[in-house]
Every structure is written in structure tokens, then in C-alpha cells.
């Protein structure tokens, strides 16, 4: 479904050239959940921005269903660390904003979006404002707003990192089950080894200077059928965690 072909990216200034990505190629099947894992500065978010069509790579290309990104941007949903809800608009208005911007708003699409809001246990907050909700609730609203446009692929840039640990675990479960129910393809950028194991089918481990794929870890099939919380309690989780930790250590990254 998603093809990333020999991506190379260099940031240029008047006095320097900083290569942040080098020879990145990978393929993602429809319905897969993929994680980009690695330390700060390894180019994960830059690559996500290229996939989103926000940055034009120096070399290489990205396609979805064999079509260039510039032709299919409306098929991409983006969920960030911050919810970026409009504080002066109600939750209902925020949820419907994506439909309005993409000119996809209709009675049917609006009803489906509001039904999704209720599915997230947020049906009673439609007329509230973002300041009246907790951080976890706001991120759920952001997820509904993203899914309301029915994207083919979701790009998740550390969407849980600003939350407390308990809320983070609950949202991991909710997002994972929702994406499976809707058979969505997802790409997660994270620094968190545990999060990548708990949510992913495959983990692409990035090395820095310049950013490149150092290794690919496949999450065992027996873990993929479990919820993220259940995965964290499984003995295979600890085995894979240690394998990834050792690989990161061999790359000289001590912040983990």
C-alpha cells in the first residue's frame, strides 16, 4: 500500500549541508501497524513529514497505491503529540473541521463522525470546549477528527508522549483496537520501545547521523492478537524488549 523508495534528504543552508536521511526504502501492506523507533535526531519525524507530503525529499519518492503523495494527500490522516484543537470551537465543531477543510462534509459523514465520538465515550461532550476536557479526552477527540475523514493511512507522531502513563496505556489500547476495527494502516513515530512492541506488527529501528534503517524487528504473531496492555504482560514482550535494547546499545545510544 505504502512504498518509500530510496529516500535521501539533506537540509541546506548558506553555509552547510546536513544530511538527515540516507537511502530509506520500505514497504507497508494495507492494515499493517508500523513503528519508526530511534533516538532524537535520527530523522524519524522528517521521514513522517515526507510521507505526509509536507516535505519534498532531496531524492526518492513515496507512493500510496502506486500514486504520488501529492495526488493522494486527502487519504492521509495525521495525529500529533499535541491535539491542536481550536479552543474557541466546541468539540463537535472541532471533530467536523477536517470534513469541512477537505470538502467532505455531508449529513452522512457528519453522523458517522458523531457516532465515532460516542464510540469513544465522548458523546456527552459535543457542546463542551477543549479547555473543559482532560488531556486524554482531547487526544481521543483528535483521533475522532482524524478518522472522520476516512483516511487510508494514519501517521502518528508520538501522540501519547505528553500524557501520564496510565492514560497513555489506556489510549494505546483504544487506538489499537479502533484501527484494527476499521482496518486502517498506521505508521507510528516513537522513542518508546515498549510502545512500539505493544502496538506494532513491525518495528523499523533507526540509527542517526545520518538517519538510516539499522534493523527491522517483527513482532511475534502471538502478540499481535493481544491488546497493547496484554502484550506488555506477555513473556515474549520482555524478550523482544531486550533484543531491541541491545541493538540500540550497540548503536551507542545510551538514553534508552
Feature tags:
single chain, 256 residues, alpha/beta, Rossmann fold, 2 domains, 6-stranded mixed β-sheet, 9 helices, AAA+_ATPase, nucleotide-binding, ABC_transporter_ATP-bind, ATP binding, ATP-binding
Q: Could you walk me through the main structural features you see in this protein, from its secondary elements to its overall organization?
A:
A hairpin with a 2-residue loop joins strand 4 (59-64) and strand 5. Helix content is 37%, strand content 25%. The protein has a six-stranded mixed β-sheet with strand order 6-7-8-3-9-10, with helices on both faces. Helix 4 (135-148) packs parallel to helix 5 and helix 6 (193-199) crosses helix 9. It has two domains: 2-72 and 153-250, Rossmann fold (3-Layer(aba) Sandwich), CATH 3.40.50.300; 85-151, no CATH class. It has 256 residues and is an alpha/beta fold. The longest helix has 17 residues, at 165-181. The mean pLDDT is 89.
Total number of distinct structural domains = 2
Tell me the radius of gyration.
Answer: 18 Å
Q: Could you tell me the mean pLDDT?
A: 89
Give the CATH level 1 class of the largest domain. Answer: Alpha Beta
The main pleated sheet reads as: 6 strands, mixed
Q: What's the number of extended β-strand segments?
A: 10
Terminal Cα span: 32 Å
- According to CATH, the homologous superfamily of the largest domain is P-loop containing nucleotide triphosphate hydrolases
Uncertain segments are none
Amino acid at each position: 500500500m505504502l512504498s518509500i523508495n530510496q529516500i535521501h534528504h539533506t537540509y541546506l543552508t548558506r553555509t552547510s549541508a546536513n544530511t538527515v536521511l540516507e537511502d530509506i526504502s520500505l514497504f507497508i501492506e494495507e492494515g499493517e501497524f508500523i513503528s519508526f523507533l530511534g533516538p532524537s535526531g535520527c530523522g524519524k519525524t522528517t521521514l513522517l513529514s515526507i510521507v505526509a507530503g509536507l516535505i519534498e525529499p532531496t531524492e526518492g519518492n513515496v507512493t500510496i497505491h502506486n500514486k504520488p503523495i501529492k495526488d493522494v494527500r486527502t487519504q492521509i490522516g495525521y495525529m500529533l503529540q499535541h491535539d491542536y484543537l481550536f479552543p474557541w470551537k466546541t468539540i463537535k465543531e472541532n471533530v467536523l473541521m477536517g470534513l469541512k477543510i477537505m470538502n467532505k462534509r455531508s449529513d452522512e459523514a457528519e453522523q458517522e463522525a458523531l457516532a465515532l465520538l460516542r464510540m469513544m465515550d465522548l458523546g456527552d461532550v459535543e457542546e463542551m470546549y477543549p479547555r473543559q476536557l482532560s488531556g486524554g479526552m482531547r487526544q481521543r477527540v483528535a483521533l475522532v477528527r482524524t478518522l472522520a475523514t476516512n483516511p487510508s493511512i494514519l501517521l502518528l507522531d508520538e501522540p501519547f508522549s505528553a500524557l501520564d502513563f496510565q492514560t497513555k496505556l489506556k489510549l494505546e489500547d483504544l487506538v489499537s483496537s479502533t484501527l484494527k476495527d476499521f482496518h486502517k494502516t498506521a505508521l507510528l513515530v516513537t522513542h518508546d520501545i515498549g510502545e512500539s512492541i505493544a502496538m506494532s506488527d513491525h518495528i523499523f529501528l533507526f540509527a542517526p547521523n545520518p538517519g538510516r534503517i539499522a534493523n527491522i524487528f517483527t513482532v511475534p504473531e502471538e502478540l499481535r492478537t493481544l491488546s497493547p496492555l496484554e502484550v506488555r504482560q506477555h513473556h515474549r514482550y520482555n524478550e523482544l524488549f531486550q533484543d531491541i535494547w541491545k541493538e540500540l546499545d550497540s548503536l551507542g545510544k545510551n538514553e534508552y
